[in-house]
Amino acid sequence: MRDLPKHQGKRRQLVCLLKEKGITSTAVLDAINTVPRHLFLESSFEDFAYQDKAFPIAADQTISQPYTVAFQTELLELEPGEKVLEIGTGSGYQTAVLCELGAKVYSIERQHELFKKTKSFLSRYGYRPKYLTFGDGYLGLPKHAPFDKIIVTAGAPVVPKALLSQLAVGGRMVIPVGEEVQVMTLYVRTSTSSFDRQELGEFRFVPLLEDKN
Ligand code: SAH
């Protein structure tokens, strides 16, 4: 599959919709306008790729809805060159959006099949995350910490302490917390021992599962 004018047109429409839904960051909207989401899906979904919906990918997982990707990314307030840890590489779409914003991206996926597939896919399409790894996101990546930003793209029944501890002072972590339904939660680390916490509405994600598979 290639990126054709018809895809680019649909992407521009998606960006308009995301603006109507309240996304304001030009950098985030530009990144969504640039990343060819249809390439991250099976070809049978090509015609639907620019609908604002989640879709199935391999290993019973999903690619997040574009609005959710935009909402979480906007909350990160990312500056080029910052170190970002993503939990749940999945299709690599969110990873690509973060790369497009100039972040140094570290991403963890617990499904080996998806990890392998997405790693080769991203490099084939010229995305260069700093580090992709197969592992358990509950543990974060202590060797590469601290991170300026952390984004969790699966529903966490509890907030992993390891992730909070790997956030730099001044850093921001966006994590959907809950079992059936998740509350989007933003943590800002205000000192080595304190965090501000804000709840920002309900979303639905596949679960953050322990251990790797
Ligand atoms: N960011 C992805 C969203 C994928 S859905 C995208 O843009 O496509 C969430 C992903 O989190 C799934 O691929 C799932 O396998 C993964 N996941 C769930 N629990 C995990 C864990 N403990 N560590 C790492 N990845 C996890």
From TrEMBL:
Q: Which UniProt keywords apply?
A: Cytoplasm, Methyltransferase, S-adenosyl-L-methionine, Transferase
Q: So which domain of life are we looking at?
A: Bacteria
Q: Which residues cross the membrane?
A: none
Q: Which PROSITE patterns match?
A: PCMT (PS01279)
- Enzyme class comes to transferase
Question: EC no.?
Answer: 2.1.1.77
Q: Which catalysed reactions does the entry list for this protein?
A: [protein]-L-isoaspartate + S-adenosyl-L-methionine = [protein]-L-isoaspartate alpha-methyl ester + S-adenosyl-L-homocysteine
Asked if Repressor is a keyword of the record, the answer is no
Where does it localize? Answer: Cytoplasm
What broad class describes the main subcellular location of this protein?
cytoplasm
Q: Could you say which protein family the record assigns here?
A: Belongs to the methyltransferase superfamily. L-isoaspartyl/D-aspartyl protein methyltransferase family.
Q: What does this protein do?
A: Catalyzes the methyl esterification of L-isoaspartyl residues in peptides and proteins that result from spontaneous decomposition of normal L-aspartyl and L-asparaginyl residues. It plays a role in the repair and/or degradation of damaged proteins.
Q: What is this protein called?
A: Protein-L-isoaspartate O-methyltransferase
Q: Which organism is it from?
A: Gangjinia marincola
Question: What gene is behind this protein?
Answer: pcm
